TrEMBL record:
Keywords for this protein: FAD, Flavoprotein, Membrane, Oxidoreductase, Transmembrane, Transmembrane helix
Protein name: Squalene monooxygenase
The gene coding this protein: LOC110685768
The enzyme's E.C. designation: 1.14.14.17
Enzyme class: oxidoreductase
Gene Ontology MF terms: flavin adenine dinucleotide binding; squalene monooxygenase activity
Reaction catalysis annotation: squalene + reduced [NADPH--hemoprotein reductase] + O2 = (S)-2,3-epoxysqualene + oxidized [NADPH--hemoprotein reductase] + H2O + H(+)
Species per Swiss-Prot/TrEMBL record: Chenopodium quinoa
Gene3D superfamilies associated with the record: FAD/NAD(P)-binding domain (3.50.50.60)
Matches recorded under SUPFAM superfamilies: FAD/NAD(P)-binding domain
Length: 527
């Protein structure tokens, strides 16, 4: 009886997904047919495509200044320079970064690397292929594979040391003659009558310079000191990550990321080299972060976390704790809040952040660069700041399918995966695990969303509420009860309370009805 009822629920969900897919495809066709007219209405003609020789003869200064040479900055520098732009990149510290996040690139992000022509940057850094996830909960586990059947065999996720990847990206960009990569700290934007003309910066020797360009792109990361000049940031810290490296550890599923639905919040494991496994223990913001210095953190990891780690890797986990190289970092979340400014653009983590649970940050950044490249590629002259600003406002809508899907999923999954004493929340968490366990469309759909392979907001909403409906079905089978019905109502209400605020912050209109969003709007400037 239970199997039959689950089958009926499954058929209903598949029908819902079919409708959503049809509506989404219809919407995309309609939207694309109108896009060119909108962009042309900004006063810039798409037929003005120029070649590299035309670009090089415009002036002696750079076409674009890029602040920051992380993943976003280095990739953008190479991409624009390959199109013939003269690019000046200013990075605060050109030594190899040492971070505990930014180490997992989803398959959707790898496809963007290929599209940008920089997929070789994951070579020669001992990067590991990632083909799916293992999900663990209270002694049960499931294996979830990326739906990669339609792609070339080289396409998969990649995990690596973040610093090695960034250095390869920087070297790739610096190999082009029209890229100037310089170490320095940008202290301010140079503005004139509301238009950004360039930047003021200090070199590593303390010398101060000003450099001018028609377009300045700020992508100086989550600690950006220029962010407030270009947007209205609302940064939240939902949790902290505690980072460890396990050595010579064999994970239960080779070439997979591992998510343990622990109490109070998830624990992640994934390989970052042929001999190292990264472990990230999430500590919710409401809980006090134990001190590393006085040994509280080591005690917490051994007594609270270790018993919830799969037995196969528990000894390696404890050994990593005993080794003592424990690091922490705050997880930041910030919806994209554009404030279009003539002469400047904000991208990367300086502009938009999400909980790193799903490892989607680099995928969003690389997707944004593809969108920006395609918008800038046809333009011969970037010097009309007002028209360029109006034109580039299309960027904020065109980026939404990928960015809003990954951002919303990251925030929603984190809230669902965290433990809670609330019975309705427990049922939602259990329903999510069991829904993914069904396999087929029930696992492939969510994993395609998470991996950036199918960035469709409507599909995300359909699957999220399909999980909730499935959870209600579990409560009412085989015999409905008043308690089960009330718990089901609370489950649906809780699901709505999780996802709708995230979508509202992302922008409901841009997410679901981009064709209704003007490509630009008039701005008044003080003359």
């Amino acid at each position: 009886m239970v199997v039959i009822d689950q089958y009926i629920v499954g058929i209903s969900i598949v029908s819902l997904l079919g409708f959503v897919l049809f509506f989404s495809l219809f919407r995309d066709v309609k939207y694309k047919s109108k896009r060119k007219d909108r962009l042309n209405s900004a006063g810039i003609h798409l037929e003005s495509v120029r070649n590299s020789d035309e670009i090089s003869s415009v002036s002696d200064g750079p076409d674009v200044i890029i602040v920051g040479a992380g993943v976003a900055g280095a990739a953008l520098a190479y991409t624009l320079a390959k199109d013939g732009r003269r690019v000046h990149v200013i990075e605060r510290d050109l030594s190899e970064p040492d971070r505990i996040v930014g180490e997992l690139l989803q398959p959707g992000g790898y496809l963007k690397l290929i599209e940008l022509g920089i997929e070789d940057c994951v070579g020669n850094i001992d990067a590991q292929r990632v083909v799916g996830y293992g999900l663990f909960k209270e002694g049960k586990n499931i294996r979830l594979s990326y739906p990669l059947e339609q792609f070339h065999s080289d396409v998969s996720g990649r995990s690596f040391h973040n610093g090695r990847f960034i250095q390869r990206m920087r070297d790739k960009a610096a190999s082009l003659p029209n890229v100037r990569l310089e170490q320095g700290t940008v202290t301010s934007l140079l503005e004139e009558k509301g238009i950004v003309k360039g930047v003021h910066y200090k070199t590593k020797n303390g010398e101060e310079f000003k450099v001018y360009a028609p377009l300045t792109v700020v992508c100086d990361g989550c600690f950006s000191n220029l962010r407030r000049s270009l947007c209205s940031p609302k940064v939240e810290v939902p949790s902290h990550f505690v980072g460890l490296v396990l050595e010579n550890c064999q994970l239960p599923y080779a070439n997979h990321g591992h998510v343990i639905l622990a109490d109070p919040s998830p624990v992640l494991f994934y390989p970052i080299s042929s001999t190292e496994v990264r472990c990230l223990v999430d500590v919710p913001a409401g809980d006090k972060l134990p001190s590393i210095a006085n040994g509280e953190m080591a005690k917490y990891l051994k007594t609270v976390v270790a018993p919830q780690v799969p037995a196969e890797i528990r000894d390696s986990f404890v050994a990593a704790v005993d080794k003592g190289n424990i690091r922490t970092m705050p997880n930041r979340s910030m919806p994209a809040t554009p404030q279009p400014t003539p002469g400047a653009l904000l991208i990367g983590d300086a502009f938009n952040m999400r909980h790193p649970l799903t490892g989607g940050g680099m995928t969003v950044a690389l997707s944004d660069i593809v969108v920006l490249r395609d918008l800038l590629r046809p333009l011969k002259d970037l010097n009309d700041a007002d028209s360029l600003c109006h034109y580039l406002e299309s960027f904020y809508t065109l980026r939404k399918p990928v960015a809003s899907t990954i951002n919303t999923l990251a925030g929603a999954l984190y809230k669902v995966f965290c433990a809670s004493p609330d019975e309705a929340h427990k049922e939602m968490r259990e329903a999510c695990f069991d829904y993914l366990s069904l396999g087929g469309v029930f696992s492939n759909g969510p994993i395609a969303l998470l991996s950036g392979l199918n960035p469709r907001p409507l599909s995300l909403v359909a699957h999220f509420f399909a999980v909730a409906i499935y959870g209600v079905g579990r409560l009412l089978i085989p015999f409905p009860s008043i308690k089960g019905l009330w718990l089901g109502i609370r489950l649906l209400s809780g699901a709505a309370g999780i996802i709708f605020p995230i979508m509202k912050a992302e922008g409901l209109r841009q997410m679901f009805f981009p064709a209704t969003v003007p490509a630009y709007h008039r701005r008044m400037h003080v003359k």
